[in-house]
């Protein structure tokens, strides 16, 4: 079976967030690098659109999180946590967040995109030219970099796809170079 069939089987062929049966698609929960069964959720086009475009959020649509926040699947819990965090100024989402429990590793995944952090407190990653970097972006190295702890040298001009951001340090990103996951300092990359 493929991933879509696995997620349909897991969810009973309904959106794992709101229970809708219309226009279901796979949503890979950022900033996972593998996606797959544990890193994805089956969501409807309404949920996906509002997750990806916060300006279109219909607060009442998300009352469904009262049920989906108790999912046994981490990807669904992470999405529920992020949406509740985004909406917590409404009142009722804050009450649900207070009830919600996530294991430490799952909570770190949920916080990795900066959802729920005040705009003034968000860490912004910028490349050598000042362009804002986001999870999933592709960058190019602008200098040969010696990788600490190995004999590897990441060469200038090497493309690093699907980076992930360090949510504690604005100067660090992670990505794979020659199949090895490494930490890269942002002043040595240029966004593609």
From TrEMBL:
Q: Where is the PhnA protein N-terminal proteobacterial domain?
A: 6-52
Domain of life of the organism encoding this protein: Bacteria
Classification via InterPro entries: PhnaA_N_proteobac (IPR013991), YjdM_C (IPR013988)
Q: Note one Pfam family from the annotation.
A: YjdM
Q: What residue intervals traverse the membrane?
A: none
Protein name (record): PhnA domain-containing protein
Record the organism: Maribacter litopenaei
């Amino acid at each position: 079976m493929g991933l879509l069939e696995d997620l349909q089987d897991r969810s009973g062929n309904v959106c794992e967030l709101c229970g809708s049966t219309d226009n279901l698609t796979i949503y890979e929960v950022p900033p996972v690098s593998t996606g797959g069964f544990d890193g994805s959720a089956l969501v409807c086009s309404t949920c996906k659109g509002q997750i990806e475009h916060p300006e279109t959020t219909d607060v009442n649509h998300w009352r469904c999180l009262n049920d989906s926040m108790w999912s046994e699947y981490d990807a669904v819990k992470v999405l529920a946590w992020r949406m509740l965090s985004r909406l917590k100024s409404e009142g009722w989402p804050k009450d649900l967040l207070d009830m919600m429990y996530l294991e430490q590793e799952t909570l770190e995944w949920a916080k990795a995109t900066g959802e729920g952090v005040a705009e003034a407190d968000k860490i912004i990653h910028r490349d050598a030219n000042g362009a804002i970097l986001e999870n999933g972006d592709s960058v190019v190295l602008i200098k040969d970099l010696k990788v600490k702890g190995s004999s590897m040298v990441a060469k200038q001009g090497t493309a690093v796809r699907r980076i992930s951001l360090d949510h504690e340090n604005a100067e660090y990103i992670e990505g794979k170079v020659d199949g090895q996951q490494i930490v890269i300092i942002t002043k040595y990359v240029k966004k593609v």
